[in-house]
């Protein structure tokens, strides 16, 4: 690489880009950890993008109509931190740069949206950012259709590396973007030919240009160090009606001794080599030192969007008060006041009509009353619409010629769906939910974790939540998946017993601003157990007494979802034997754990034997059975301790011993 | 579709294919559940494949040199059951066909390798089969290189649907197969343009032909109902040195009223429509009735490989006794006798030298003694070779020009790696292991579950297993992943404390024939805690007393992995305070749970306070703390209850309170 030529050919550009490279080298060296090569390789692309194209105002990083910039190759976090510092972002001070990757710093190892306002999404696990970006771009299309171009009109830019493109999820994202002609999505591929293990060719020889074209993308190939070529490519990409991929041939760790090597991918901490690289750059400044003129130029770039933002504000102010309020409410992730009343009305109705239906159908009934009053919901399913019951009458289908459609046919892409939903939620203004079979939590899992970590209130509608799925067999029957989601921090897992609890669960899920929810719903029909209408959302306490013991309280049955009615049947039999039995419905363990001890003690007092009933593994139950005043000698569990089997549901519940008879026998054993 | 023309043009073929369609219609109708359309659409392809190409002997489904046939579109399970019944497979009787999807039947909803010998792999979760197939094909290449073409020379055929190709994992598989020029892998794409939600175009418009070509595949497009075209395409595919994809344009539910519709994808149970379809086929026979002549023709196909198998056996018998024994041992998944002695020697050496190293390095040391004596091991990493420490000196790298290489650079493809490893294990003769960061259990998760369900002893080498990962931050720090793997049935999760336990864990993992193992290994260095050499594999009991209390036993500290040395340090402090403290190392909860109660009671007696220490979530620990004679008032846990953070490891352990001081404080609180 002829660094000298780069320096002289576009010296103003070079200096700005070099500021990114120098800060990256210094921060990684100080931290003795991090990834130097990627920011050094992509500094030119980022500089041109931010200087000439990206619509943003560094003073107001959350301006709703900003262009979104997503660093899918999140390990190159110093790229974004350098940019934000140079641009004058108030949160990214020089001290933050110096503290890169240290405890308490906002400049974490990978970019985290909950630490920095200007970071759109938490990246690092590869392929997530580019898939989030699909959701960002869809959210923009939907909102633009709804509010008009004068209020919503921005691009989504994403930088992806070879790792992002090798992860399977990228294919799901590429396919979705191509199918929906997301023309305002522009992806830069950092084509540096290097991964951690060596040259890309060690593990992949895919022609990425052909691959993207096969899915309907506009593709360009450029020298990623040529600012004019970068600028021209972005201009061409903006003009295309297809999503654009710009393959940027770059040199990882440009100008460093480790350039173009796997070593260059990691932390470059050799101080002599660092000095040599800076010398090659023509950068005589000390560590963390940015000359005032270069900083000023960057800060000017950081300010250039202020006028656009003010003009946007003026346009926004012309919207009707109602539309402004709706826009602002959705961006604030607040529910409409009417939500509580429509949920209450539904609860009252079903407490009276007592339908015997599957909770996936209960969920649909709930959505039928929610979707009309929350225009910000966007639903979908990973090719199981009829099974997940996620489509309601009023939504319309999102498509190239119907951007107002609020339902998305995600295809057989649970992972891409989950990541794109996270992107929609992070974009703002949209409340995404999407369905699949609960067993395929496995496929969506990396994005479900990121929803929790990055504090997006995505709702995962997981139907067919046990062996009750029946004949499809063990590949499709979740047994460990409730435990998996419950083990995940900042995740609410709801397993409602009937339509009332399902409606309550939806109400809570939509009231979350920073926590995803998992709804665990049945395939099979369940009786209504909440036959007495209560205004109060009982699910909000996580667990409550559904049926009190008659006579002396000798047993407490704790159950969730489809097993609540099993517990109720067992209670009838136990009461008939003269054994006073309380049934506790526990639709959300996380919310119950948050209640104060007095409440928990009232629900789960010491003394009676306890039996937990759930068609899943025991993991996660011991706290409620052995702890919380429980005792090993007086506690039992009726559930699964193996994978399921293929048979009609009733036969399976019998076969695996999840029946009222088994509960009664367990109680009698323990008494 | 002109069914009449199909009937007359190739009537002998048509009758055989129609037998598949008729059995499918009858079995699904009897079960009132299942997927009729796929077998009906792909019956012609399957008939030509089995009649003219597939090398197999229905009497001996486990013949090692058979061609492998994988139904990636596993919902079409009646295709494989029909074929096996028609061919005369002894396990698939007509009663089994009649019992499709019923409790106890071998004809489960989706094909399960543990129920039927002729089913190569359990499919249903889409995209897994085609990714398993990559592993099957790699295993064949490696073994062919090792034993020669006269003993190993077979193809891997796979049928994939639109769902398989939309799942991201398929891109990982396609990329791997193309990169490694797996010329003996031949995939049929059931190009029927239908998914559950409707036409494929609802969610995808990818040009699959271009997509496969972009990754270096040989691609053909044919009419999937034309037997001559099918035959010619398979012949051409066999000649290509590239992996082959044959795009078969088919009609889902061919000949039925639901042909070419989403309804046709599911269970076709309308008896009038069923009768009409059979009439259109020219199939006047009753339910489950196969005319003797057609059955005889199919059985002849089932027998045609017998001579090939006998010839193969004769060639195999010419191998040296040693090579025969090695071949048979590896296929039986048995370890060499020397394994125990090399592990013991390593244990003795490290008990004496007491290295302070990361357990990922301990794992490498163990592999350095195992790989030379187990030529059937095949290692790899998802682009983290230097971090996972999975490559040992003697392995060689698998490549187009080095098929003997036993190390695979999987690229950034955790999911594809895991599924391909399962495929290798299922192929037989190979013991696969592969590494990634433990946090990326999430990406590999669907295939890890299938390893457990389908009883493949794959070894997942999961390094950087806690906040000890340090600066990369919470996106890369597992906190719930031990719980996730422990919640999964038929999975052994090992979290060794030092090199001795790591070696013991590997020994146990390799002795499994039907259970996958997860090795949870540290990034950071740990002291040797097993400083007294024991011949016995103590890890095999799951937990054991590492250090006994001196004086009156007041506390038991239970710890795993990197926290065992924390517990040991806490014990020193507690003993100094006069508090007799036992330390129990618990490297494998599943194995401890399998011990008889007497042993468990000796390790965890009633009485002392108990504190669990593990840098993960508490889920899964309550059994050992509150149960097994424990009591809530006397039990505590030191671990994580949130996501981690970005900082050096030492700072994080301090920040999250996972320290000897915290353990001591907890014990004092409880006493």
TrEMBL record, chains A, B:
Calcium recorded as keyword: yes
Main enzyme class: transferase
Positions in coiled-coil regions: none
Residues reported in the UniProt entry to bind thiamine diphosphate: 75, 124-126, 163, 192, 265, 440
Keyword Metal-binding: yes
Binding-site list for Mg(2+): 162, 192, 194
Pathway the protein contributes to: Carbohydrate biosynthesis; Calvin cycle; Carbohydrate degradation; pentose phosphate pathway
GO molecular function, one term: metal ion binding
Source superkingdom: Bacteria
Reactions mediated catalytically: D-sedoheptulose 7-phosphate + D-glyceraldehyde 3-phosphate = aldehydo-D-ribose 5-phosphate + D-xylulose 5-phosphate
Annotated cofactor note: Binds 1 thiamine pyrophosphate per subunit. During the reaction, the substrate forms a covalent intermediate with the cofactor. Binds 1 Mg(2+) ion per subunit. Can also utilize other divalent metal cations, such as Ca(2+), Mn(2+) and Co(2+).
CDD domains: TPP_PYR_DXS_TK_like, TPP_TK
Cofactor needs: thiamine diphosphate; Co(2+); Ca(2+); Mg(2+)
EC numbers: 2.2.1.1
Gene3D superfamilies attached to this UniProt entry: 3.40.50.920, 3.40.50.970
Signal peptide segment: none
Record: residues binding substrate: 35, 265, 360, 387, 464, 472, 476, 523
SUPFAM superfamilies named in the record: Thiamin diphosphate-binding fold (THDP-binding), TK C-terminal domain-like
Stretches assigned to the Transketolase-like pyrimidine-binding domain: 357-528
One Pfam family this sequence matches: Transketolase_N
Similarity comment: Belongs to the transketolase family.
UniProt subunit comment: Homodimer.
Name of the molecule in the record: Transketolase
The species this protein was found in: Salinihabitans flavidus
Taxonomic lineage from the root: Bacteria, Pseudomonadati, Pseudomonadota, Alphaproteobacteria, Rhodobacterales
């Amino acid at each position: 690489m002829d660094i000298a030529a780069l320096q002289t050919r576009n010296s103003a550009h070079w200096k700005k880009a070099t500021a990114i490279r120098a800060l990256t080298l210094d921060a990684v060296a100080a931290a003795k950890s991090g990834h130097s090569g990627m920011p050094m390789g992509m500094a030119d692309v980022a500089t041109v993008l931010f200087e000439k194209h990206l619509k943003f105002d560094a003073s107001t990083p959350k301006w709703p109509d900003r262009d979104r910039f997503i660093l899918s190759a999140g390990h190159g976090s110093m790229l974004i931190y350098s940019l934000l510092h140079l641009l004058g972002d108030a949160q990214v001070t020089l001290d933050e740069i110096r503290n890169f990757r240290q405890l308490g710093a906002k400049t974490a190892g990978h970019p985290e949206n909950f630490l920095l306002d200007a970071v759109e999404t938490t990246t690092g696990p590869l392929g997530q950012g580019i898939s989030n970006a699909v959701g960002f771009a869809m959210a923009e299309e939907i909102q633009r259709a709804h509010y008009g171009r004068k209020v919503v009109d921005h691009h989504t830019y994403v930088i992806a590396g070879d790792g992002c493109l090798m992860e399977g999820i990228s294919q799901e994202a590429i396919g979705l973007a191509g199918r929906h002609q997301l023309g305002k999505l522009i992806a830069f591929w950092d084509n540096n030919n290097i991964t951690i293990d060596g040259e890309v060719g060690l593990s992949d020889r895919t022609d990425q240009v052909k691959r993207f074209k096969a899915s309907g993308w506009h593709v360009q190939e450029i020298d990623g160090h040529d600012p004019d070529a970068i600028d021209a490519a972005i201009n061409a990409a903006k003009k295309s009606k297809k999503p654009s991929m710009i393959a940027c041939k770059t040199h990882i760790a440009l100008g460093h001794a480790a350039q173009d090597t796997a070593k260059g991918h990691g932390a470059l901490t050799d101080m002599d080599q660092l000095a040599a690289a800076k010398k090659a750059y023509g950068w005589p400044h000390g560590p963390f030192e940015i000359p005032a003129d270069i900083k000023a130029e960057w800060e000017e770039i950081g300010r250039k969007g202020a006028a656009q933002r003010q003009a946007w504000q003026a346009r926004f102010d012309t919207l009707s008060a109602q539309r402004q309020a709706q826009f602002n409410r959705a961006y604030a992730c607040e529910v409409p006041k009417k939500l509580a009343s429509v949920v209450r009305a539904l609860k009252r109705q079903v407490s009276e009509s007592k339908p015997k239906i599957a909770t996936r159908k209960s969920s649909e009934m709930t959505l039928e009353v929610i979707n009309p009053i929350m225009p910000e919901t966007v639903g979908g399913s990973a090719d199981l619409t009829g099974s997940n019951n996620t489509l309601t009458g009023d939504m319309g289908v999102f498509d190239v010629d119907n951007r107002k459609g609020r339902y998305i046919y995600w295809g057989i892409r649970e992972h891409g769906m989950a990541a794109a939903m996270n992107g929609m939620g992070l974009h703002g203004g949209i409340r995404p939910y999407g369905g699949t079979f609960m067993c395929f939590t496995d496929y969506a899992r990396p994005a479900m974790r990121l929803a929790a970590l990055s504090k997006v209130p995505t709702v995962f509608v997981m139907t067919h939540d046990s062996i009750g799925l029946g004949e499809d067999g063990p590949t499709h029957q979740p047994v460990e998946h409730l435990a998996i989601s419950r083990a995940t921090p900042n995740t609410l897992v709801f397993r409602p017993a009937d339509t009332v609890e399902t409606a309550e669960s939806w109400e809570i899920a939509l009231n979350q601003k920073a926590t995803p929810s998992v709804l665990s719903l049945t395939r099979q029909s369940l009786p209504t157990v909440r036959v007495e209408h209560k205004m109060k959302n009982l699910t909000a306490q996580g667990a409550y007494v559904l049926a009190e013991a008659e006579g002396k309280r000798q047993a407490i049955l704790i159950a969730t979802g489809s097993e609540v009615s099993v517990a109720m049947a067992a209670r009838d039999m136990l009461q008939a034997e003269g054994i006073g039995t309380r049934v506790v419905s526990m639709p959300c363990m996380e919310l119950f754990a948050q209640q104060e001890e007095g409440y928990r003690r009232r629900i789960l007092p010491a003394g009676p034997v306890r039996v937990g009933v759930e068609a899943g593994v025991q993991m996660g139950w011991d706290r409620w059975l052995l702890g919380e005043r429980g005792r090993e000698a007086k506690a039992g569990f009726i559930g699964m301790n193996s994978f399921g089997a293929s048979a009609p549901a009733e036969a399976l519940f019998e076969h695996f011993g999840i029946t009222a008879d088994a509960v009664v026998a367990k109680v009698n054993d323990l008494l």
